[in-house]
Amino acid sequence: MESNLRISLHLPNGWFDHSRASPNGPSLYYRHLSKYAGALQVSLAEYKPGKIPNMNPATLINIARGVGSRFGRIVEETSGGCVLGEFGSVLLQSDRIARAQVWCLTDGHVAVLVTHVCERSPDPVEIDEVQSIVRNLQVSERAATTERRPWWQIWRRKHE
What is residue 131's three-state secondary structure? Predict the structure, then answer.
């Protein structure tokens, strides 16, 4: 069953949605103004039975840690508040990944997983913008389709 929820985020100028390149994967964004842009991926998980159990800062950091373990060693762990509710995050580095950050955000009913992976040293402006994108991320209901027409009337104008 398809969810009626969607991720809503504000992309600053210079950021572009590349999600169509991977229609079955997470949403994917790049900052075209950066010399070596990192990949920003965002995915949503909805917990249908209601409130997700035990989603406290330590749990959010542990989820981020588990996802981020493939990117390298942990440099920093943080948690706090965001527009959605709460987040836990880990910052990682390795010999092949200059910087990776993984967030797990929740409002108690949905969890959003975000990764930003930079193989080369990222532009500091990109890092600031990613922090803002993630902290201001929201989850909202999809708009219902306004009109359903029989297939044979698809090409007819609405007011004919």
Answer: helix
Query: What secondary structure letter does DSSP report for 69?
Result: G
**Domain of residue 38, CATH code:** 3.40.1000.10
| Residue 111 within a domain | yes
d(CA 58, CA 134): 18
Question: Residue 62: its pLDDT value, please?
Answer: 95
> How many domains are there within the chain?
1
Return all residues near 121 (Cβ < 8 A) that are at least 6 apart. Answer: 36, 98, 99
Residue-wise pLDDT tens digits, 77-113: 999 999 999 999 999 999 999 999 999 999 988 889 9
- Three-state SS at 79: strand
Read off the amino acid at residue 82: C
